[in-house]
Amino acid sequence: MNKVTYLERKTRARYDDARVMAYLGEEIVETVMVDEDDGTESVLIGYAYTGPEADGGTLIDAPADDRNTLINGIIRSRYPQTLEDSVKTHQLLVILDPGHPKAKEYAREWEEFDRFRLAAIDTVDGWLEGGDGV
């Protein structure tokens, strides 16, 4: 994974017809800039993104720019459909049999998935409410 800091906030950009470069997990950070002329340092506020791409971005499958497609693209970047199905099946087992030997493990698995799912929704809603074009 690559963590890159920018002085301006990034959101997403159309990469090609089928994918979007998304900048996820934004962290607001202080970054030190050194003036090339006199060597003085300035502390600035920046935005850090961590992703598999060299620029800290994450390529997501998103052939359209609607809310559901973008959310699904973010979720798929971490959870392929078969893994999501497995997590949901495990959650059903926990609901139907709270005494299942792996109930605690499956509950943690669901909580992790659900946190990521909700973060994906918040991210996309922020993009769309902010009027950020692709």
Share in helix: 40-55%
What is the helix/strand order? EEEEEEHHH
Number of strands: 6
Largest sheet: 3 strands, antiparallel
Number of helices: 3
Question: What's the number of domains?
Answer: 1
Task: Report the portion of residues in β strands.
Answer: 25-35%
Cα-to-Cα separation, first versus last residue: 24 Å
Low-confidence stretches at least 5 residues in length (pLDDT < 50)?
none
Query: What global shape is seen?
Result: elongated
- Class by SSE composition: alpha+beta
Q: Give the overall pLDDT as a whole number.
A: 94
Radius of gyration: 19 Å
Strand order of the largest sheet: 1-5-4
Structure in words:
This protein is an alpha+beta fold and about 130 residues long. The chain has one domain. It is about 40% helix and about 25% strand. The chain contains three helices and six strands; from the N terminus they run E-E-E-E-E-E-H-H-H. The protein has helices at about 65-80, 80-95, 105-130; strands spanning about 1-5, 10-15, 20, 25-35, 40-50, 60. The chain has a three-stranded antiparallel sheet with strand order 1-5-4, with no helix packed on it. A three-stranded antiparallel sheet has the order 2-3-6, with helices on one face. Helix 1 crosses helix 3 (about 105-130) and helix 2 crosses helix 3. It is elongated and about 65 Å long. The two termini are about 25 Å apart. The model has no long low-confidence stretch (mean pLDDT about 95).
